[in-house]
Amino acid sequence: MSTLKIKLVKSPIGKIPVHRKTIKALGLNKLGQVVEKNDTPQIRGMIKQVEYMLEVEE
């Protein structure tokens, strides 16, 4: 299964609570932090919801 590198590039401060919770669920806490997640439809949906705050590499 392929993995995705997800990087937080914008702060979730001041964003709507659902988006802040999504960022937390992806395992991101600090700006510039990178996590690797398996490429699943659930993760893709979470990324789609908050894509304006993320950079994603396949």
UniProtKB/TrEMBL annotation:
<feature type="domain" description="Large ribosomal subunit protein uL30-like ferredoxin-like fold">
    <location>
        <begin position="4"/>
        <end position="53"/>
    </location>
</feature>
<keyword id="KW-0689">Ribosomal protein</keyword>
<keyword id="KW-0687">Ribonucleoprotein</keyword>
<dbReference type="InterPro" id="IPR036919">
    <property type="entry name" value="Ribo_uL30_ferredoxin-like_sf"/>
</dbReference>
<comment type="subunit">
    <text>Part of the 50S ribosomal subunit.</text>
</comment>
<dbReference type="GO" id="GO:0003735">
    <property type="term" value="F:structural constituent of ribosome"/>
</dbReference>
<dbReference type="GO" id="GO:0006412">
    <property type="term" value="P:translation"/>
</dbReference>
<dbReference type="GO" id="GO:0022625">
    <property type="term" value="C:cytosolic large ribosomal subunit"/>
</dbReference>
<protein>
    <recommendedName>
        <fullName>Large ribosomal subunit protein uL30</fullName>
    </recommendedName>
</protein>
<comment type="similarity">
    <text>Belongs to the universal ribosomal protein uL30 family.</text>
</comment>
<dbReference type="InterPro" id="IPR016082">
    <property type="entry name" value="Ribosomal_uL30_ferredoxin-like"/>
</dbReference>
<dbReference type="InterPro" id="IPR005996">
    <property type="entry name" value="Ribosomal_uL30_bac-type"/>
</dbReference>
<dbReference type="Pfam" id="PF00327">
    <property type="entry name" value="Ribosomal_L30"/>
</dbReference>
